[in-house]
Design goal:
The chain has about 375 residues and is α+β, with helices and mostly antiparallel strands. The chain has two domains: about 230 residues, DD-peptidase/beta-lactamase superfamily (Beta-lactamase, 3-Layer(aba) Sandwich); about 90 residues, D-Ala-D-Ala carboxypeptidase, C-terminal domain (Peptidoglycan synthesis regulatory factor (PBP3), Domain 2), CATH 2.60.410.10.
Length: about 375
C-alpha cells in the first residue's frame, strides 16, 4: 500500500513539473511575441491611430493613414489657438492675467493673478511649454471670454474648409466634442507655419520671458528641434484619452513638410520616419516664376492689342523624384478685357494639376499698363 502511494506521488510530482515547464514555455512565447510585434511595428512604421505628411506651401498630402478619422488631439489644439491669437491680437498688447487663467489643470507656466505679460510672451509660454494657463489668458484677452475665443477657433476652421474639426476649449483638455483629424490638423499647421511670427515662436528652442517674481525660463518640449536635421516646429500633446500626439515640421532643399501622428506611442520616431520618407522621395519643382510671361490677353480699344500676364510669386509643387508624375497647369482667363488696363490687374486663375487632379490655383495679373485709344489713334488706324 505504501509503495502504491509512493508511486502515485511520484507520478503527481512528474505531472506538476511538466505543467510548470509548459506554463513557462507559454509565458516565454507570449513575451517573445510581444517583442517581435513591437519590433515589427518599429521596422515597418508604427502609424498610431492616424498619421499624415503634408507639404506646407501647396498642402499636398504625400502620405497618410486614416487621415479623416475624428480623434482627440490634446495640446496640439494650441496650434489653432496660437494662429487665432496672431490673427486677432497685436504682439505688444499687455495682458493682465485674470483669476480664471490661474491654476488651470494640466501643464502650466504658473501664471499669477494680476501679473502682466505681453501677448508674444504668452505665446511662447503657450507653444514652448504648452501652458494651459497661457492658453486661457490669451483666449480671454483675444475673445473677451473663453467661449468667445472658441467661436473664433471654430470659425477659422470653417473658413479653411475643414470638416472634421471642432473645438470646445483653447488648450486641449479632453472633451468628447473636442476633436480633429490628421488631415485637418496638418492643414491648420501648414497654414500657421506660413505666418512668420508663428514659425519663429515654434522654432525657438529656449527663451526667457518676464514674471511677477522673476524671469521664466522656457524650454521647448519638441525635442526634434535638437535632434532632427532641418526641424522647424511644431507642437506636442498628451492626455490619457488622446494618447501621445505630435505635429512636427522640417525643411530640406526648399521643401517644408508637416507630419502628424495622433495616438502614437513612439510619436517622435514615427514623425521622423515619415519626414525622412518625404524628403527622400519628393522634391519641389518650379512651374512658374514671378513676373514671367505666362500668356497674353486681348485688349479691346487699347493702344496695344494684347497685355502680358503673370503670377506674382514663384510657384513650386512637390513631385516625386525621377519625373514619374505628370504635372501641368491651365489658365482660366477671359477672352478679352477693355482698355484702359492697369498693371497688376487681376484677370483670372492659374490652376495646377497633378495626374489630372487639381492641386491648387493662383491668381493671374497683368504685367503692364495698356492705355485706351484716343481720336488720334483711331485716325492713324484709319489711314494705316
Amino acid at each position: 500500500m505504501d509503495g502504491d502511494i509512493a508511486i502515485h506521488n511520484k507520478h503527481a510530482e512528474k505531472r506538476r513539473i511538466i505543467a510548470a515547464v509548459l506554463l513557462l514555455t507559454l509565458l516565454i512565447a507570449c513575451v517573445n511575441l510581444f517583442f517581435v510585434n513591437k519590433y515589427d511595428q518599429a521596422a515597418y512604421g508604427y502609424n498610431g491611430s492616424s498619421s499624415i505628411v503634408m507639404e506646407v506651401s501647396t498642402k499636398r498630402v504625400l502620405y497618410g493613414k486614416n487621415i479623416n478619422q475624428r480623434l482627440p488631439m490634446a495640446s496640439t489644439t494650441k496650434i489653432m489657438t496660437g494662429l487665432a491669437v496672431l490673427e486677432n491680437s497685436k504682439l505688444d498688447e499687455v495682458v493682465t492675467i485674470p483669476r480664471k487663467a490661474v491654476g488651470v489643470e494640466g501643464s502650466s507656466i504658473y501664471l499669477k493673478e494680476g501679473e502682466k505679460l505681453t501677448v508674444k510672451e504668452l505665446l511662447y509660454g503657450l507653444m514652448l511649454r504648452s501652458g494651459n494657463d497661457a492658453a486661457t489668458a490669451l483666449a480671454i484677452h483675444t475673445g473677451k471670454s473663453v467661449e468667445g475665443f472658441v467661436k473664433m477657433m471654430n470659425d477659422k476652421a470653417l473658413s479653411l474648409g475643414l470638416k472634421n474639426t471642432h473645438f470646445t476649449n483653447p488648450h486641449g483638455l479632453h472633451n468628447q466634442n473636442h476633436f480633429t483629424s490628421a488631415y485637418d490638423l496638418a492643414y491648420i499647421s501648414a497654414t500657421a507655419m506660413q505666418n512668420p511670427v508663428f514659425a519663429e515662436i515654434v522654432g525657438t528652442k529656449f527663451i526667457t520671458i518676464g514674471g511677477m517674481d522673476g524671469n521664466r525660463y522656457l524650454y521647448n518640449k519638441n525635442k526634434l528641434l535638437k535632434s532632427y536635421p532641418g526641424a522647424t516646429g511644431v507642437k506636442t500633446g498628451f492626455t490619457k484619452k488622446a494618447g501621445r500626439c505630435l505635429v512636427a515640421s522640417s525643411k530640406r532643399n526648399g521643401m517644408e513638410v508637416i507630419a502628424v501622428t495622433l495616438n502614437c506611442g513612439p510619436m517622435f520616431e514615427e514623425c521622423s520616419r515619415l519626414m525622412d520618407k518625404a524628403h527622400s522621395e519628393f522634391e519641389m519643382a518650379n512651374i512658374a516664376k514671378s513676373g514671367q510671361t505666362l500668356a497674353e490677353i486681348q485688349v479691346l480699344k487699347g493702344k496695344k492689342d494684347k497685355a502680358r500676364l503673370c503670377v506674382k510669386e514663384d510657384i513650386y509643387v512637390p513631385v516625386k523624384k525621377g519625373g514619374s508624375e505628370k504635372l501641368e497647369y491651365k489658365l482660366k482667363i477671359s477672352d478679352s478685357v477693355k482698355a484702359p488696363v492697369k498693371k497688376d490687374r487681376y484677370v483670372g486663375e492659374m490652376e495646377v494639376y497633378l495626374e489630372d487632379c487639381l492641386l491648387f490655383s493662383k491668381k493671374i495679373y497683368t504685367i503692364e499698363d495698356v492705355e485706351k485709344k484716343g481720336a488720334i489713334d483711331y485716325l492713324k488706324d484709319f489711314f494705316r
